[in-house]
Amino acid sequence: MKLKNSRTWKQSGLNSIGICLLGFALTFCLRFVLNDILDESMSMLFFAINCIVMACFFGFWHSTGLLAISLPTAFYFFRKPYSSFEMLVVKDIYIIIIYATIILLASWIIEWLQRERYAAVLLQRVSETRYQLLIESDQARRVEQTRNSAA
What we know:
By secondary structure, this protein is an all-alpha fold. The chain is 77% helix and 0% strand. It has one domain (11-118).
């Protein structure tokens, strides 16, 4: 049985966008506080974790939107020269490609698994409902048989 509404496993609307932006802001603050310790290393790691966590709760598109704002933010604020997009070197391009690929692949896999889980839950509910209807029908048939045999 193919379910067409398996896409509705997640929350949507302004509330989910607000939570994603709050997660982005918290991630930025955490990375900013740790910037003296981490320097240039792991400039995207915290943002990648945020994108993947938000994919678990709000789906692929929210995660992709966060990725779109996380990449420039990480490279603008946490790569030397700070507060500048100058001096993007080949290494930076590789980092962008690697992080974008990992985040998009993880988000897509999470989306697929969440849809399958939601579809399984829906099918289980349908199966339980059909089973209950079958039991009620069988009980009604037995009651009818006992009335007919007593008469």
